[in-house]
Amino acid sequence: MSGQDSRASNAPSPLSAIPLVARTVKLFGHPTQLRL
Fold it and tell me: DSSP states of 5-35 as a string?
């Protein structure tokens, strides 16, 4: 059971994806993505 717990912890959370998206928007500079 502990194996499943570690798997869930390693799973990417939506909160950690926010900064990644912001970085991509800065790199690409798409006004359409900034509107989101």
Answer: HHHHHHSPPHHHHHHHHHHHHHHH--HHHHH
Question: Which tokens sit at 27?
Answer: 């790199």
User: What one-character DSSP code corresponds to residue 30?
Assistant: -
Tens digit of each residue's pLDDT (9 = 90 or more) over 1-36: 444 544 555 556 677 777 888 887 787 776 665 555
Number of structural domains the chain divides into: 1
The pTM assigned to this predicted structure is: 0.34
Range of the domain at 11: 2-35
